[in-house]
Amino acid sequence: MYKKRNMLFSPIILISLVIIASCNNEPNTAPSEQETSESVSENTTSQNVENTGTEKTDQSILDKAANAEETVNAETETTQPVNDKLAYEIGDKKVFLGGTMIETDHQIIIEGQSNLIEGAKVNGKVSVNEDEYAADVTAKVDNQGEFHLEIPHHDRDNVETTVSLSFEFDLTEQTDLVERLYGDRGQNLEGPYIYKHQGDRGGGSPQNIFKMAHTETTFVTGNELAIRHFQEPDWFPIPEDLGDPNVWIEIEEKNNDKEFLYILARSNLLEGSIVDGEYNFESDSARVGPDGSFQLKIPYVYREDKQLIIEFNPSRMSQWNIIEETYGSKGQKLTGNLVTIPPYSSNQIIQKTIDSESTEVVVPDEVDLTMDGSEVLMQLPDNLLFDFDKYQLKNNAKSVLNEISETLSQFDDVEIQISGHTDNIGDDDYNQELSENRANEVKKYLQEKIGSEISFTTIGYGETRPISSNDTEEGQAKNRRVEISIDLRR
Q1: Residues 210, 254: one domain?
Q2: I need a surface site. Which of 77, 129, 292, 400 has the fewest CB within 10 A?
Q3: Residue 22 within a domain
């Protein structure tokens, strides 16, 4: 599976119906001879109607899906946006997949939303520490594109947990209707949620390469129950020379949190190409995404004069047939200044070497730090910065922000969002205003310390984005926070 950026949604899904109303404009008339004959025929052939009812219903759903696809970009009263960027219609082949994940003591519950047609099956999966499988459950989408999943909790504390949603055609048996609309291998699927992947049974031949819609979110289990929103993938523009044998690789960001080295890179490699990264005898691999990008997460221990090495080998085990065909089964079609021939081999590979320096993200002990590729998130408890029910910074808060400002000043030309959050106690409007004021106060102070080299934006979410349960004082305290989010790609 590809390495993922955070994802990412709370959509509103509507069915767009195209209604032909011309008959309403005609005066009432007696039924024609043909209509009468058809009515009699229907009454005398009820068994045939029963036998074909499912087929007619399926065709009706497909017709509605086709109509939705034709009108998805039209500005109509029935089209409502599901987020700030896009509007989706039920049955459109440009698929949306999202919702909210809630961690309870014994379950992980997903309240899912999509624009998939009724009867489509969505798989929810929980895994720990990236690779270790925990559990999965399948649910059917209803006629509003919604679905509900309850997945058993793995009951392990302090482990990184990934919760994913997938609409796929490999291990999940979809209905004939779903396959007719989206393709038996998902080949008709479109949009930012769509990935190619290799089928579980078989090699890398074209017949075993599927498309699926996929989104995921991560959290670390602990004493506080987590609430997460699935996010939409945020891809780079697709390179014009995607698939060109003259391969290039560019490092967008390289950072470490003392435990892992995080690499975000762009390339013109075909989607599905496997890329390997190695640093100080530790390694990681990833499949290239639809935009040519990939992310690596390599265990990190600093060593002098050690370099990061990124390799693409077309003859590597598990490369798809299309990869070998494009670049040569022995890499013989590869060109450009990254081409090299390893010792004791006659095969050509792509190799890029990067100096070992990386930006180290350091925050005070009281601040929670999360890194996922190019995404850096700092969570500051409100009592670290403010007195109760106030938005003016406390004196001892400034020492915390001074340390954070030193870390932020290492980054060039990045956008930083500061968001305020509250618990659910009190008036909604008051909480909204308080969250906005607190975010603005933090921005004002950091901007004065750092200067104009970095762009800050602020937003207040009030009580709408909890990260823990508001049913306990501990959970409420965790929800009262200021978040500093850095997208290192921008």
Answers
A1: no
A2: 77
A3: yes
Q: Are residues 436 and 475 in the same domain?
A: yes
Is 298:277 a contact under the CB 8 Å cutoff? Answer: yes
Most distant pair of Cα atoms in the chain: their distance? 92
Does residue 243 fall inside a structural domain?
no
SS3 448: helix
How far apart CA 3 and CA 9 sit, in angstroms, is 19
Tokens of 484: 């500093």
Q: Considering only CA atoms, which of 221, 267, 277, 232 is closest in space to residue 247?
A: 267
47 is written with which tokens?
A: 């068994």
Distance CA 54, CA 49 (A): 9
Rounded to 10°, the helix 428-450/397-408 angle is 60
How high is the pLDDT of residue 220?
84
Which ranges of 276-387 does DSSP label H, i.e. alpha helix?
321-327, 382-385
List of residues 6+ apart from 148 with CB closer than 8 A: 109, 110, 111, 112, 139
Q: Which of 490, 408, 488 is nearest to 448 (CA)?
A: 408
Q: What does the pLDDT look like over 416-435, one tens digit per residue?
A: 899 999 999 989 999 999 99
Q: Within a 10 A sphere around the Cβ of 216, how many other Cβ atoms?
A: 23
Is residue 347 within 8 Å of residue 398, measured between CB atoms?
A: no
Does a structural domain hold residue 456? Answer: yes
pLDDT tens digits for 32-56?
Answer: 444 444 443 444 333 433 444 455 5
Kindly report whether the global pTM for this prediction surpasses the value 0.90: no
Residues 261 and 334 in one domain: yes
Strand order in the sheet with 282-287: 282-287, 274-279, 308-312, 349-354, 339-340
Least trusted range by pLDDT, from 253-257, 335-339, 446-450: 253-257
Axis crossing angle, helix 33-44 with helix 46-71, rounded to the nearest 10: 120
Query: Of 180, 204, 234, which residue is a domain's last?
Result: 234
Two tokens, residue 394: 């406390």
Residue span of the structural domain in which 163 resides: 1-234
Look at the chain and count its residues: 490
